[in-house]
Amino acid sequence: MNKKKIINDPVYGFIEISSEGLFDIVEHPYFQRLRRIKQLGLTNFVYPGATHTRFQHALGAYHLMGMAIQVLRNKGIEITPVEEEATLAAILLHDIGHGPFSHALEESIIDGLHHEELSLLFMHALNAEFGGHLDLAINIFRGQYHKQFLHQLITGQLDMDRLDYLKRDSFFTGVTEGVIGSDRIVRMLNVVNDKLVVDHKGIYSIEKFLIARRLMYWQVYLHKTVISSEILLLNILKRAKQLALNGTELFSTPALGHFLYRPVSRNDFFGNDALAHTKPEISTGIRKNLDSFAHLDDNDIIASAKVWSDHPDTVLSILSNNLVNRSLYRIEMRNEEFPPEYVGNIKNVVRDLYKLEDRDMEFLVHQDSISNNAYSSEDEQIQILYHGGILKDIAEASDMLDISVLSKTVKKYFLCYPKDALGSNL
Prior knowledge:
This protein is α+β, with helices and mostly antiparallel strands. It contains 19 helices and 9 strands.
């Protein structure tokens, strides 16, 4: 069988799967599952074109990684063929731990477990299946390989993950403010003292990248209607788990039922801190949980919500109906916290409108906060390389950007409640 394939991608054109080992990763059921997980969760409720998947994103990041490796080699940076394949495998698998609807249900299906930890666990499971061929990929992914710049290409201020998702998400949402010159940025990459840097000719592309990232977060990722839809989805799952753990019979797919009818947490995957070891033994119990999670995708949640629309539980049926028919919460956003009396008044109206108990109000009236910064001053800084080997931080090198503004964390408070309550003395 010919395992060297070419895939036609709408963003970059042809993407080549360059080795049999990488093709085996792409063909594995763990990876194919990413076809059934939307990259941007429920963002298509706002931007109808945003139905692209984690599968597409992983291939896009892989494509950029291949470009970056060739660029660095052409500049005299030694990257062996073994290191190249391991780095490409690591970027392919960097998001394999994402659950249904990506970040929308982060840490809610499995309490306290982040997708990056699950990605690493999936990598260890695949490594055992592939006879240890992912050892180096895992070390690079964890930042435990001596060439740290390879790890920075996977996770850092200018990693291939960010360069792909900004360009891909702007393409599929149609939000042109997020368009970046990813090819230009990749071609400007260099390495000094084992650290990823940017040649000075690329400074304007970096400025554009930082501005685009800020605009995409507030215009797409943290759009108030996206937040409203994700809170609705979270509350549906939370209510379903509450009912299931109390013995209420619910329709669910087998994979979803595994997590609804038992309290599954991080300890069920990492009870003995297995990932502290180079080659952890994956027990039967951990494997069962991992395989159940690997069968979960967006379809499990949507199919269940459609059935729950007719469930006798009032809260679950209201929430599920609202999701299926896109009747989202009304959402208000402010720069300061909402006064308790204002929130209390809304709760009273909603309680009377739906004839609910106080204990159920958390599912209909929800308040929280969101925050974001475009450039993290706590991470490794973006360094600009000038002639003579002089390095300057982007904050010093840029004559246009006020990095202190871009690195400042902006926090906003939001309040969600049913739209039906609008005409009821609010």
